[in-house]
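Office hours follow-up: a student asked to see two folded examples consecutively, so here they are.
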Amino acid sequence: MKKFIGLIISFIFLTGCSAITEYNKALSDYEGSDRVGIAFDVSRDGIMSKMGPVRIYPETIGCIDLSSSKNGFLSGNIFGGGEVNSVGKKIGIPEVNGMAKDRVELWVSAKHNIAIRTIYTGQTGKTGYFSIKTAVAESVVTFKPEPGTFYYVTINFDKVDPITGKYMRVYKIIDDGAGRKSLKHVSDLKISNCPGQHPWYQKSGAVM
């Protein structure tokens, strides 16, 4: 039942209540030179498996503009009305110990900050099958990208990170100085939505 509810919530989250499609689309590779590569964990225990759709808001400045035409979502086979970010799509992001083998890799604009949001259901430690108030939660991480670098996004539903306090983890892939690559948490800028803007689930009465 929880998976069914999660599927419905995910579908609404991606399609939205509006017919506007400028920002309700699968994110495609950014073709400019000022870009970063981001690998999204889509493994069995990763983002897509938990019915948790992912919204990406490139070129975020003072606030997260939910209706920007730069926005897009990480799409899977059951999401997005035919638009798909193919599982296994690779752009050459380095393989680092701790990263999932099943990933979707995208080029994203690094002109300004990047915000990433996901929602998840039935993973909040609260009870109740039909209460949106207790069954839906979210993670939002906003960071300043460094053009030419690579990042990795995953979710850990078992432990809240003591540094970021988030279920969603965003890492920068760094060189540890010994010729090896490792993962380092990005600094969360904690940027809020633009004034007056609310995701659909808040409009529907969910309390986060």
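And the second, which I mentioned at the end of office hours:
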Amino acid sequence: MKTFDSLPAWAALPVSLLLILGGAIILIGALGLMRLPTFYQRIHGPAITVTLGAGCILLASMLYFSVLQSRLVIHEIIITIFLLLTAPVVAMLIMRAAVYRDLRLGKRVTGADADEVYQFSKKD
């Protein structure tokens, strides 16, 4: 089985850089999840950075296995498309559920009430 040692230098450098960049982006998102004070602020760290960080790691994986196997490996492209489609939708649904929960409980922590957030009809 071929290993990282048999990878040419022209491919090893971008793979390494993409892995470091992806790991750093995901680490920043995890730190944001830990450090920010409210739920609405904490959800932005993972929601934004997971997509970009995981994309960098998947690109590194695609490049690595494509060079080692001397053919295009597209499994990672399918995973990336799935991740790009589902991660923002899941984050939005989690945030909307939190807004609805806060509105039902009558919390004013979010800075808006139901009339300001969801206007279904105009009041004159």
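Two things to take away from it. Residues 4-85 form one domain. The radius of gyration is 21 Å.
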